[in-house]
Amino acid sequence: MAKRIEVSGLNVYYGDFKAVEDVSMTVEPRSVTAFIGPSGCGKSTFLRTLNRMHEVIPGARVEGKVMLDQQDLYASGVDPVAVRRVVGMVFQRPNPFPTMSIFDNVASGLKLNGVKDRKKLTEVVERSLHGANLWNEVKDRLDKPGAGLSGGQQQRLCIARAIAVEPEVILMDEPCSALDPISTLAIEDLIEKLKDQFTVVIVTHNMQQAARVSDQTAFFNLAATGKPGRLIEMAPTKQIFSNPAEKATEDYITGRFG
Amino acid sequence: MSSPDGTAPPDRPDGTAAGQEEPKIEDLVHEDAGPTPRFEDLAEEHAEHEAELSAEVMTESGPEPAAADPAVAATGTAVATEPGKKMELGPVGHLGDRLFSAFARGSGGLVVLIVAFVGIFLLALAIPALADDKSSFLFSRIWEPGGDQPRFGIAAMFYTTVVSSIIAMLIAVPVAIGVALFITYYAPKRLAQPVAYAVDLLAAVPSIIYGLWGILFFAPILLPVINGLSDALGWIPLFEKPPGDNVGVVFTASVVLAIMILPVVTAISREIFAQTPIAHREGALALGATKWEMIRMSVLPYGRSGVVSASMLGLGRALGETVAVLIILSVPNGNDPWNSSIFAGGETFASKIANNAAEFDSPEKTGAYIAAGLVLFVVTFLVNSAARIIVDRSGPGGRRPRRKRGAGVAQGASS
């Protein structure tokens, strides 16, 4: 249930504006890969191209290849809806469906896939909530609205919702930036656990977080405002934080960034 | 004294209200201006306040610092203030403020007064007529006001009004939701705006035009639909078609009413659909929802209360619509038996009153029509109140009360 992502020569455009230029990388299965870099360097944009969520933004388009175990996500005849069922996503702000109960939130993806059997739904919901380290906190109030949980719980609910459909890859776009330190810690523990089963890609502004949770780190940067973002360096996390190959990476992680 | 750097004036008198504790600014204001300063009172109190204040300043200035000084020290600015000098902090209530407040209060009061007077007017004229009514006002279908033995009831009008409005809603609301979704989520940008304008334009057409267009142009087109429906469902009294090709029937009026309320329902639904937070929509899409599934999971639940209130507004308009209905609906012959079919003619409250405006010659007759109008007023009021309650209970995107079904499922899940 985890696949390798191979990206080659990827450019992302918003209309005429080139937002990300020539990114090539390999994301290993059953590992956590962190994207770091200053705001506006295109790391979130790039992340969205991995499950074609960028297509939600009008005018966004992509050149290049994203291969998920030998299958090109951008080949003709590939349905973005199908891609997103294989590559799940968790967003910056927790976004449980406000009118749905906790149970229905987790079950929503399964229902989209046509699962109607109550027993199966119940089973998967319980397993996903366990998987998201949330079961013990919500098992007595599954019928309550998901929006009634705390921010950190909501985010774990969103992770439970994402893993309920058993995707190959989970993308996380700054999943902790709206959370307090304790909730952040809970999510980080969870990411550690998720990588046993899934390929996890996480965008973060928090370098300690990248150092704590990831196996590989990719540093993105942009030459100047208005220029496209580029992948500067990608290496095992230890190496990036102890002995980066590029000067720009070192400047960024040591805080000497201009 | 706990002034941060000890610059509080040392020669402050012990006997002042401040005593051993630092006075807070609120206390001082409290002493000066009374608990909650209200704008009306200010006009009268202002003068004496001014006098009091100046008196205080007079007595407390001089050798000793003014009463305001401890407060200044308490704020932590901790700059020794010059004794005797008072900052300009008042008076409260500026002229513009007071004028606008008076204007706003007046406007608010005026609206309440107007509503009250309309109600009183209706009641005052209706009650004597109702007292003379020799048949049941609410349940009788006879309408013979005036004369020695006035007999009138609103049952027939009530039925026609409600049925025509409900059919109009049943047609208009789904179409309006469809149009609103098309404009917000399906139409390409270049098309969305013109379509939105076109729908808005429907609202600008005067109802007399709708009436003429409806009976002269639209009703003949609708005739096959009427025939088809009555052929298929004629065994239900509601759809039973009386002989003849009369097109000035309740059904025709309903369809025209539906077109008339379409713009308002569409406009409000469109607004609320467009406001669905992108986070909700992306949440659905990221799970692998198609566009329609995304709309069902995030847009419709978010817009639900807005659509309900929009529908109620539309219903209010349909209930009270006069001229278009008056022109379209054929008035049944007085001798014919009453027909409940939507393919028969009839009269609504509004069309009946408008049809007979020439008959308002005696207070008794007028009172009967006014009483009918009063019922329309009450019905419309109830519909609007219901809409308001529904909207209040679930604001946009708000949670609705959970249904029992969800609870049952969850119990099953947790066991």
Summarize the SSE layout with pairings.
The complex is a heterodimer of chains A (258) and B (415).
Chain A: E1 5-14, E2 17-27, E3 32-36, H1 43-49, E4 60-68, E5 71-72, H2 80-86, E6 87-90, H3 102-112, H4 118-131, H5 135-138, H6 151-164, E7 169-173, H7 181-194, E8 199-203, H8 207-213, E9 216-222, E10 229-236, H9 237-242, H10 247-253
Helix pairs in contact in A: 3-4, 3-6, 4-6, 6-7
Chain B: H1 25-33, H2 39-60, H3 68-74, H4 95-132, E1 143-144, E2 151-152, H5 155-186, H6 189-204, H7 207-233, H8 250-274, H9 278-286, H10 291-320, H11 323-328, H12 349-355, H13 363-393, H14 404-414
Antiparallel strand pairs in B: 1-2
Helix pairs in contact in B: 4-13, 5-6, 5-8, 5-10, 6-8, 7-8, 8-10, 9-10, 10-13, 12-13
What is the number of helices of chain A?
10
Helix content of chain A: 25-40%
Rough shape of chain B? flat
CATH fold annotation of the largest domain in chain B: MetI-like fold
What radius of gyration of chain A results from the CA coordinates? Answer: 18 Å
Q: Tell me the Rg of chain B in angstroms.
A: 34 Å
Helix content of chain B: 55-70%
Number of domains of chain B: 2
- Beta-strand portion of chain B reads under 5%
What is the typical, i.e. mean, pLDDT of chain A?
Answer: 91
- Look at the structure and name the CATH superfamily of chain A: P-loop containing nucleotide triphosphate hydrolases
List the strand order in the largest sheet of chain B: 1-2
Strand content range of chain A:
25-35%
Please report the number of helical segments of chain B: 14
Characterization of this structure:
The complex is a heterodimer of chains A (258) and B (415). With 258 residues, chain A is an alpha/beta fold. Chain A has helices spanning 43-49, 80-86, 102-112, 118-131, 135-138, 151-164, 181-194, 207-213, 237-242, 247-253, and strands at 5-14, 17-27, 32-36, 60-68, 71-72, 87-90, 169-173, 199-203, 216-222, 229-236. Chain A has a ten-stranded mixed sheet with strand order 5-4-1-2-10-9-3-8-7-6, with helices on both faces. Chain B folds into two domains: 25-93, no CATH class; 133-405, MetI-like (MetI-like fold, Orthogonal Bundle). In chain B, 65% of the residues lie in helices and 1% in strands. A two-stranded antiparallel sheet of chain B has the order 1-2. In chain B, a hairpin with a 6-residue loop joins strand 1 and strand 2. In chain B, helix 5 packs antiparallel against helix 10 (291-320), helix 7 crosses helix 8 (250-274) and helix 12 (349-355) runs antiparallel to helix 13 (363-393). The longest helix of chain B is centred in the first third of the chain and has 38 residues, at 95-132. The model of chain B is unreliable at 1-37, 39-43, 53-79 and 395-415 (pLDDT under 50). The chains are: A alpha/beta (258), B mainly alpha (415). Chain A: It comes from Kribbella pratensis. Chain A: InterPro entries: AAA+_ATPase (IPR003593), ABC_transporter-like_ATP-bd (IPR003439), ABC_transporter-like_CS (IPR017871), P-loop_NTPase (IPR027417), PstB-like (IPR005670). Chain A: This is Phosphate ABC transporter ATP-binding protein (PhoT family). Chain A: One of its GO terms (molecular function) is phosphate transmembrane transporter activity.
